[in-house]
## 1
Amino acid sequence: MFSTADSHEYLLPYKCFEGQPLTEWRNAYYDICKGDIDLAYLCDEYKRNPIFAATEVNNQMKNTPQSFGLLKTLPIYDPDIILKLPFSNCATYCLGAVLIMRSKGIPVAYDFTPNWSTGNNGHSWNTVYTTRFGNLEFAPHTTDPGTVHYPYLKVPKIFRNVYKPNEEYLKIATEKYIPPKLRNMFIQDVTAEYMPTIDIRISLQESLKSGQSPFIAIYDGNNWTPVYWGKIAGSHVVFERMGLNTCYIALAYDSNGNAIPISKPFLASASKHIQFIEPDTSAFRTIRLNRKYPLGDNVFSIRKKITGGIIETSENREFDHTKKIAELPQGNLTNGTVFLDKNAEYRYWRFTSSDTSQCDMAEIYFYDEHDSIIQGNIIKCTNSIFDKSNNAANIADGDQLTNFSAKGEDWVGFDFCRPVNISKISYIRRCDGNSIQPGLEYSLYYWDNNNWQLINTKIANDVFIEFENVPQKALLAIKCSQGKQQRIFVCDEDNKIDWY
């Protein structure tokens, strides 16, 4: 049943968000993206059905072209303006959806996570209240109610924007410091509506000082960022309803906003087991990394375009007669190396696609017998039915985010000005810019004594990098001189990496 308390949250309040201008917003927005909801009474299955109403309005919103990005802007409370924005963030679009749908009496809410468990930022989406299914999530302009939103991403905490102030928050805020990312009294913890959770109970390393408050944090790529507050229970602190498969750390904040770790990092597993991560500084190992960030759907979704590839040689720059030297493996999605017969010396080398596949290649590197990269002059393909001559140089421009797309007869050649003996060829396929790249500087850290400890800094010479003297069982972090995406991880004895 849709209770009186639900009405007080979803429909009756004079505003949807703190800071919203006091206007006649219901009348002003009622006709925006209305669709055929006024005809729902003609169908007994649809009348009084919020799923139909929300879907109908959302379908109208889909007709307004939108592009999503990580823009940081001031809130916009006019849906008419929001619908005309060519580019904005998820928070703005979700805010607009709430205003548009509540103006029509549709019980829609704004849910968000302050930060993904393995990402560098948070995210927002909408839910519609139903009596049969509870709250069904959807993405405005994109997916309809009932479509699970990013089901493969790990989440530490989910909140819902509400009208009634959070009493637990108010009690903390009147006594202690709250980090800026959580300074919102109009939020309700709804994590348990979405997934199994765990109440995390840890022993305090020492008593909190006056004015300090406990928070639980995840790593956002640069720092430990808080996602929820804790409750003191004697010599323990409890963090309720936390997401699983996530690496956490407990922090205390003093009155000046300084964060102080009050626990070791720990993993909350899918089986609801808490495992603290402690480095063994008496045992060391060597690890190899091919990436600095987990491989996500943005790369996996183009897997049919980043397979295969052939390396050929010729006696002339026209490649009238060629010899296949190597075929790149089909199953390697990001980067790799092929070793060649050292007895073959050729001046002209080229990269082309396999017969049946498209192969987008970001970078290719040729190594001599001394394991040094050698450069060749680009030879552009001119006989392809696709004009790829303008982007041929992308394959050797030092930028992973540009690529040469080989398909059919497309190719790009290299003139080394003399016959050369190539010992191996390394490559980076079209990707997200997070493959290990020759020439870039990488630093590896491990967590110990409440801080990151530097293991070593190296400049990569290949599409992988190795670090020696890495403490066993440590929580590690890789940072690069280029790019913003970087994650923490653990590495087992078989060099298998789990990113967090």
## 2
Amino acid sequence: GWGCGYRTLQTICSWVRHHNLSSAAASGSHQNSSVASIFQIQEALVEMGDKPSSFVHSRQWIGSFEVCLALDHFYDVPCKILHIDKGVNISQFMPELCEHFKTVGSPVMMGGESDNSSKGIMGARMSDPALLVV
């Protein structure tokens, strides 16, 4: 439903803050001690020039691209987007996902191409391949 992209972003932001992975937090340049609200996320996307001013206070959703912009904006954390065609080819990306969880550990956003719903991936397993999805 509406807001799932924002909630997935907020989950990732909470993880980044909890694990002190933010370059901005490490340098002291990010003074906000809480995870950004939907309104703050919308304002930031407008401020960056990604969205028009009418986006603020709207019920327009965000996707993987906007999540990447927001993570970079709020926490100076770079992101990588992988396009996986309708999940059919997800098995070829399982090694990369498993490596991410071994080395970084943060949740991963998976956008919904056919159902338009964001999913938060919290873990992955190579043997008997599976994803832990919230």
## 3
Amino acid sequence: MASCFEEDGARSRFEIVDVSAGSVEDSASSLNTKWALAEGLGKLCSSTDAGVWPDGTDIRQYVSTLQVAYDMLHLTEVIEEERILSRYEVGVVTEAAQQIVKTKPQPLLNYWGFSYGTYLGNTFASMFPDRIGRMILDGVVDASDYTASGWRTNLQDNHKVWRLFHQWCFEAGPRCLLNDNSTKEWTQIESKVDKFLNHLKSNPLSIVFRHRIYLLRYFDLEKLMHSASYAPWQVWPLLAQGLAALIQGDTSTFTSLFEFSTWIPRPSNLPPLQLLNPFNNHSAPYPPSYPSGLEASIAILCGDGEDITSESKSDYLSYLDELLDQSQLIGPVWAEITLHCRSWPKSARPSSRNRFTGPFGTKAHERGTGKDDGTGLMLFIGNTADPVTPLQNAYKMAEGHEGKGVGLLVQETPGHCSGVNIPSQCTWGVISRFFNNAELPERDKRCEIDWKPWDMV
């Protein structure tokens, strides 16, 4: 396992100190604290015996997207073998059946990947182009930037998200609680929110609840708004209600809407999604999280990327400035993603043979698209205002996959990925026809949404 801490309580204490330090842009002290914590985690993970075999090999050296792509390939073969053998009674699988398994055509992967899942799908496609069935890459990561440990091509459309938040709030009238009788244009809502955020930078709010003191800082609200940008239909009305309450000095309403310390929406406050989902007729819960997710995620993103441990604190400050130029609101949150990579130990990094760094792309004949049998098809999907995977990434990654059999769908909406959280019958129709009928939309097809977040309030 990838865990570096001997017990979960130690990890929790580490995370508490990290959160308490605030944002990397707050002060030199905040940055120095977070830098030291990242160095400490790197030292801990390089010295732990957990996940280290007797020969000294570290399991973290195998934590990479390349390894997962091989796992996916193996799973397609196992699933196909089980499908064939399931036709026979247990214990009476004949030699002829085994021969069918051995001589069957290589099974293909049908896949729908979101966000990081687009990098995983792109890796699989580039490594095994002849094993692509029908693949959707939705909310597309720039693979070359990711493998460079850059994370510099994510926030280019982030400002569009917040412009739409304020514009749609204005259009919603009194259903959006940031919109009062004095509001004449959407920029007044934007100014009101910006004024409050700037005040919060120097004036954290103390909130007393059940005899405990909680602090709401600017960085906390940054992270809350960042998460809200992923799912406008679920969270934007709640966010507007919470911001309106805070602006009026009403902390009790805000704390009734969002969880303490994490400041994420309380599940009981999230509205049911009014969506058309042609693939599911029931709601399945997300799998539970696991304690060592911190180390696992760091091992994956730092191991997939280039070694940047030679970069100094001064280099990091320049990097922070670059991201702040892209998004004043989310830049500091995004800059923390690669902070741990600057101290990630070489002993925990995968070897070159366990990393895939490209080239990312395929040719039509490699995918077998020329057979016209509905396989070897790829569909890229991008939103016009995605907070972390801008539309330009979808175009860039699609260009690497040449020939017919590659489509690109543009969804006119804010939010991260088309997924299941954005209402568009047009998009769902394209996705359904792609998987069911091997039908690709025309290049650059655009889909509108069917309603806006406040329409159901």
## 4
Amino acid sequence: MKIVFLCGSLEPGKDGVGDYTLLLATELIRQGHAVKTIALNDRHVKTDVYSVWHDKETSVDVLRLPSLQTWNERMIKAKNFIDGFNSDVLSLQYVPFSFNDKGLPFNLSSKLNKLSHKGKWHIMFHELWGGINNSKTNTLKNRVFYFLQKKCVFHNLNAVKPFLITTSISAYQTHLKKYKVSILPLFSNIRFLNNHQVKQNTDIQAVNFGTFSGELDKFKNQLNWLKKVAEKQGKKIIFITFGSGGQFKLPSLNMAKNIFGNENVSDLGLLPAQEISNILSRSDIGISRADGLLWGKSGTTMAMLEHGLPVVLKGTRADLQLSVSDFNYQEHLYFCDDDYNNLPQRTHPVDALPKVAKQLYNLYTIKK
């Protein structure tokens, strides 16, 4: 099968959906398919970039079109790239801010329809619109903005008429119930490295990476729950964080230092994927800013779970929605209202990418 993936950016390590796209593309190539990738609105380049991206011994052709160019210029170049390939499927990886700076890509469908081809459209919704998990606390301004984002989704769906629609979590599937939507589980962008990492101490090493949540009270509950778990074991928590952290990084780190002690908290900043895998491999438990509703779309949560870590989510167990997948991750998810008398245990690492790639191909063939 010939597939062209389209997303916003393909700057390695700078765009989660872009990294997801490159990994999925190379895995499908390993499984015998022909795949190319296009970044339609890349803010990391100033001119057209034709390149080859490598994962292990597999490579995929990449076309990156800069956001500085007009959409008309980019669509002409993308169409030439696609027509020369004669693809069976065009797969759009949808995130609203990837295609519009304000997160309102109303005209996306008219641009996509210029890429007329013999194949069919697939849309993967990585995100829909804001406010899905906290609608009661949104301001009027936010509610109006999220309503417009919702209108964008339905407008683009009705105009493009994809033969397949997928998303990673059941909550999003429910919001798109007027369409037939299939679940395609997320996989980790941080690949597990089988390098036999060994812990250097007997304390409980907890990891947090990515962006801290603004819900500081819920983060505090997660930290306090971990402290109780450690105290029951006669141990202490060694808290390690890495990644950009975001605007709530400083208050979150101060909170962790107040609970665990300054000497037990480390901020390692931005790290390469290999080093992240090394740290996850020698840690005991992860802390996620995701809750029971949206955990299945969190790349950092997936990375921790695939590395065998139990993960503490925000909120309470009553909020947990199970993911439709083969991996049974819900058995390794914990909440602050769970019993803290037993230390959650690591499990065997999982490589979800090959299964997800096969699942996508099966969806393509079923829908043919």
